[in-house]
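Entry 14: structure prediction run for DNA repair protein RecN. Input pasted below.
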Amino acid sequence: MITALSIKNYALIERLTIDFSKGFSIITGETGAGKSIILGALGLVLGKRADLTSLKNKEEKCIIEAQFDISKYNLKAFFEANDLDYEEETIIRREILPSGKSRAFVNDSPVNLQELQDLGLFLIDIHSQQQTRELTDENVQFDIIDAIAANQEIISTYQILLKSYKSDKSKLNALLKKQSESNKEKEYHTFLLNELQTAKLKAGEQEELESVFEKLNNVESIREAIDKSLSIANEEQFGVSGNLKEIKNAISKIASFAPEYYDLLERISSLAIEFDDISAEMNRCSERIVLDPEQLEQTNQKLQLVYNLQKKHQVATVEELLQIQANLENEVIELGTMDEEIANLNQSIVQKANELDVLATTIHTNRIAAVPVLSEKMIAILATLGMPNTRFNIELTQGESYLINGKDELQFLFSANKGTDFGLLKKVASGGEMSRIMLAVKAILAQYSKLPTLIFDEIDTGVSGEIAIKMGEIMKEMSKTMQIFAITHLPQIAAKGDAHFKVAKSTIGEDTQSELRLLNEEERVVEIAQMLSGAVISDSALNHAKALLN
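Run finished. Output tokens:
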């Protein structure tokens, strides 16, 4: 229930703070006094969009703050799911800045409008004559029947299973499409894979093959260069090795004369050792040089195969070819397991469809049992509201499709008068009839489910006398288990309230302001008397007001 409302700088309200109690609260006031402003402020708290026209003073921000007692609403899971601090006394604050930017907070944690709207559904339900048309919505009609049928838990189970069923169907369709496309390419991909597997490629192989090919393809040049080098190195009179030895012997004779000569000897000795090693290695290379046309041809063929595969697959390295091969292998494996996946999904879909059918049948059976209960209760309440000849014909038929709340199709037929045919509620019920039907529905739902705070906004338009008294009594009865507000022009309803608030508009200089205040007993008598007789209050109106209040 809402326990307090604070409004600052909104529409005609400069500043307002008001406390509310449980039970049945009445809000009255002249047309244009500002009752719609109060509803507008509550709408902002519940997540409606705002603009700068909401600001009374365009230079200051607008702040609307509402406090709710949510201890009986079982909302801890909602707060946890939205990462909000749960407080039994929860405060929702909405701010509209002069820049036009809007901010919202729940217990001082910032939230977006969608989160605010989702939370608002649990807190306040505002009904006006225009909003009674919601009753013509099939989903709303199902909600009414399901509340009486106690179907909420089973529908929740059904919806979880339906989500899984639809997920499986989606996966199956995707697999079948993929299988159809893959089958077209399967033969080609298998050919490509076999071609790569036959090549027996290895990482780093291309560089090795290219090196071997260069050696085998240039054997004569290599042999000539090495032999010439060996000849120069080892020629008996003028070879490099002999000359190095001569130099070494000459320097060794003077090495003891000075350190720099000794260093020269050391360096020449090292050079001689290194050159001897180079000569030995050139000899070994010369011995290994063999002209092998067969190996050259094999190497060349393998290289050409690599180059051709790279060109076909538009890559530059063997490593990329190996990755393509791995991808093709995975595709082939996937194609092999796809049939098994499709079979498993088909089996799962059939099983879940059977379970959904069982749940849908239970939901249907419960609804069939609830329909006469709803009809009887509706007829009884509407008879007291001046509709004694009301009849309902609620038709439920099971279809083939899995809908969000079962497999039922619904026709909510209505007749207000004797001798008239049944027609769809949305086509044959008038605005006044819809208002009374809405009140009857809410009165019935209050017996079966935990409803949020209900605000009836002038749904009594076009009603008077004894019917108005009955409407007030119904609201009064509902308020025993929930918080009810009624915005009304009827004294018969206003007299039934536990608390009575008046909205009034005043002009101070060039400024117009609206205010909402709680009336005491005497003020309440006067207010109801004015509702009976107008601005000039007669003694009979005062007595009538007292009688209504008593």
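Notes: Residues 318-384 form the longest helix (67 residues). Will compare against the previous run tomorrow.
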